[in-house]
Amino acid sequence: MPYHPGMPRHVAPTTAGLFAESDALKPLAERMRPRSLDEIVGQQRLVAHDKALRRALEAGKIHSMVLWGPPGCGKTTLALLVARYADADFRAISAVLSGLPEVRKALTEAEVSFAQGRRTVLFVDEVHRFNKTQQDAFLPHIEKGVIVFIGATTENPSFELNSALLSRCRVHVLEPISVDDIIAALRRALADRERGLGELQLQVGDDALGSIAQAADGDVRRALTLLEIAAELADGDGADQRSIDEATLAQVLADRTRRFDKQGEQFYDQISALHKSVRSSDPDAAVYWLTRMLDGGVDPLYLARRMTRMAVEDVGLAEPRAWRMALDAWDTYERLGSPEGELGLAQLAIWLAIAPKSNAAYVAWNKARAAVRDGGTLEVPMHLRNAPTKLMKGLGYGKGYQYDHDAEGGVALDQQCLPDALAGTVFYEPVERGLELQLREKLLALRAARAQARGK
Predict the structure, then answer these.
(1) Same domain, yes or no: 126 and 66
(2) Residue 295: which residues within 8 A CB-CB, separation 6 or more?
(3) For 124, phi and psi rounded to 5 degrees?
(4) What is the pLDDT of residue 256?
(5) What are the residues whose beta carbons fall under 8 Å from the beta carbon of 376, sequence distance 6 or more?
(6) For residue range 50-77, what is the model confidence (pLDDT) as tens digits?
(7) In this predicted model, what pLDDT tens digit does every residue of 112-146 receive, in sequence order?
(8) ∠ CA(244), CA(226), CA(239), 5° rounding?
(9) Is the domain of 92 the same as that of 204?
(10) 3-class DSSP state for residue 345?
């Protein structure tokens, strides 16, 4: 029978304390953990009244799933509520702290419950830290219905989880909690006398709540932790009321950090954003993403190397100075270090974004690579071959070669330099931007003159 809030239900030993009355020793974030779907802030795309996941949970119809989202967005809470609404046992393991023995123990306990007619929701936190063998251990138990598997991950499951496990689960994407939703959670904590800080009668202004919510960076748990610390430091006015003033807030929010994972998806998303901002000639976005990555602790020399690639690949011959400037910025950082050297990287990002763009050389390089790969070992034309010996000269090596400096205009127009099988092939086509506009005009004229000379 499906569970609805307010109905009596059997509580498994492993979940007996999860939704019990407030415990003063628990952190505020744990005490304020939502006890029903209605208490969840954010994630309305999943848990609003008309959404499929909510309707399924309220009907007691649960499925194995992977919850993918940043820290503090409600993954653990949602897993707890899945078990509660389905009147199922709840067991949790952490991939950080557990190995295969702990996994097998949890699965054995679930089999016992299953034999007794009880379902088990097995919650695996940080599931992406399990290797393939550990992930495979869940598969037969999911298929038999012994467990309803719920994995929580901050990393892209497409990369971190094996396809066999993903095929048996539905992936639900959770988003960072908005500032307004975090403020709502903070207000609830301030008003709640049973689980929250209501007994303290704290005076907290709207601006202070907004600052805490902004500093939380989409993480409700962090916001509640910051509020709890601020409450402990709050000054009283002698009338059993305390207020969180600007000085207190400044102490609490002194060491703000942004969400970033130097080895995870956020890293690759942000370097992609930097590269594409440069390519799109948006200097404001380019310097923003560069600063975000520096703030997140990315190695500045890695960023220097990537921007050198941008200079070669995306600016190219439309502005050849970009290559030199990238190397100079790289060298500047190595000489100055942080923070002075980072200014050189910022200037490079801005300049690369403003510079005219061309990938013509990059395209030409790829075309030439394809021609080499597909064309086999094409012979060098005889007139271009080196002839250091009499024998080679006698075989015709170098015969008919025209020394361009002696030709009219400095170019031997009727001399073919590509192998015969590739004669007339065009690899490099300059764009009509920056210096390449001039190169294009010269090259088009030169190619036309060559065609005319060979036609004669």
Answers:
(1) yes
(2) 258, 260
(3) -115, 105
(4) 61
(5) none
(6) 888 889 888 888 899 999 988 888 899 9
(7) 999 998 989 999 999 988 988 889 989 999 999 89
(8) 25
(9) no
(10) helix
CATH code for position 100: 3.40.50.300
Same domain, 204 and 289: no
Burial 123-153 (b: 16+ CB within 10 A, else e): bbbbbbbbeeebbeebeebbeeebbbbbbbb
Identify the residue whose tokens are 């609003």: 48
> Do 231 and 89 fall within a single domain?
no
Contacting residues for 99 by C-beta, under 8 A, at least 6 apart = 134
Q: Are residues 84 and 135 in the same domain?
A: yes
Least confident window among 240-249, 370-379, 392-401, 445-454? 240-249
Q: What letter does residue 318 receive in the DSSP assignment?
A: G
Tally of domains in the chain: 4
Q: Whole-prediction pTM value? A: 0.62
Identify which has the larger pLDDT, 243 or 6: 243
Closest alpha carbon to 152 in 162, 161, 144, 143: 161
> Are both 146 and 39 inside the same structural domain?
yes
**226 is in which domain, residue-wise?**
179-252
